[in-house]
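Input structure tokens:
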């Protein structure tokens, strides 16, 4: 008999994906606040550093193992900054760089990436990802 297994928290996953999709647009909206305000630069900085990376890594099928959660957290910032560097470079090459164009391109990318399946993580695929890296054999004696 085959069971149709549903994710344990489909609502939580949907809300997380929606929050990731909206994070870039919120960062763009806070740029309307007065310059120099922490309420302006903090959300933008957090989004640029982590938003695209989390959108690329999060939407994995099934629950993540502890090793995969750590791997996703460790890779979110480098992936996000790589996407930001690619977006900034592309905008500079077409001579269209501005803060608004940069945030709009990152927000659109993050929205699209949050609805697609995440990148596969090695720790998510290995059965002993959360286990010890090396097990010492028992001594005979």
């Amino acid at each position: 008999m085959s069971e149709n297994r549903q994710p344990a928290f489909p609502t939580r996953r949907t809300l997380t994906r929606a929050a990731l999709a909206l994070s870039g647009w919120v960062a763009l909206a806070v740029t309307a606040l007065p310059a120099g305000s922490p309420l302006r630069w903090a959300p933008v900085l957090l989004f640029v550093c982590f938003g695209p990376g989390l959108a690329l890594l999060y939407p994995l099928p099934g629950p993540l193992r502890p090793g995969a959660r750590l791997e996703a957290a460790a890779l979110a910032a480098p992936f996000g900054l790589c996407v930001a560097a690619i977006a900034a470079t592309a905008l500079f090459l077409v001579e269209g760089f501005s803060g608004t164009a940069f945030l709009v391109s990152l927000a659109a990318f993050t929205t699209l990436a949050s609805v697609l399946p995440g990148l596969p993580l090695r720790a998510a695929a290995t059965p002993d990802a959360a286990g010890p890296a090396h097990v010492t054999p028992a001594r005979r004696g």
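The two ends are 49 Å apart (CA to CA). Residues 66-93 form the longest helix (28 residues).
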